[in-house]
Design brief:
Layout (H helix, E strand, L loop, with lengths): L2 H13 L2 H8 L3 H15 L4 E4 L2 E4 L1 H25 L7 E7 L1 H8 L3 H7 L3 E7 L13 E4 L8 E15 L1 H7 L13 E3 L13 H4 L12 E2 L3 H9 L4 E5 H4 L6 E3 L7 E9 L6 H17 L2
Parallel strand pairs: 3-4, 3-5, 7-8, 7-9
Antiparallel strand pairs: 1-2, 5-11, 6-9, 6-10, 6-11
Length: about 300
Amino acid sequence: MDWDKLRIFHAVAEAGSFTRAGEQLNLSQSAVSRQIGALEESLKTPLFHRHARGLILTEQGEFLYRAAHEVSAKLAMTAAVLTDLKDRPSGELKVTTTVAFGSIWVAPLVREFVDLYPEVSLSMVLDDSELDLSMRQADVALRMRKPVQGDLVHRKLLTVHYHLCAAPDYLRRHGTPKTIEELDGHRLIVYGDEAPTPIADVNWLIRAGAGRDRRRHPTLRMNNIYGIKLAMESGLGIAALPDYIVHGSTRTVRVLPNVDGPSFDTYFVYPEELRNSKRIAVFRDFLVRKVAEWKF
């Protein structure tokens, strides 16, 4: 099959329309449509159902899309490896991690990394779900748990600890608890029940020191750690937050510093095929240095 036509087919399948695919490929809508028509003619089978709202893949189209997507990912991986054969790290580096960790901890470090390696074009995808590295949805992932796939290389980056925190304004109005049991009389902010998190007992704040016969009722549930931080800083109540998100904050007071919350390890992860990538090596080493400097 003609790879150029397959490349256009793959773009159309991803975009869901001839017009959007044409914009991405810098081709006219009619040129894209002709190429798809020619591909369908050569295969003697329709690849799309055409309707007013766009395009939907046929069963045969789905099968071809999976094959084309795999080939596209492998070619992108090969291009990345070839780029890294140069002496100095250069080219695109796509990094994915969670919304909170990426926006709070990684984003402030980007300027320094770009200054050190201006030929590396950094792209960050912040998503609380895990992207597929083997399909080149990203080159590197900073994950909140150890990967289980055998084709992924991983290195422990840091251990994240949870601590109880509140805003100074809240503590002035409601007092500072001296024991874990005194949390019974305070406003508490916790995760939503279905929040994605590596901590098994994510809402431990409700139960810690409450005894068997009592269960605290939170003032607010929210399934986003950054949102919890903002609510806590507004003076709403006490929250359990990871150390990276409140490190250096002047709007946060540690509550019950002798009470240790849960912890989890964060990992630097990338595909086996990119083990010798200079871009990944310099980014990994840069983050390792930053972890040492922050002293979580």
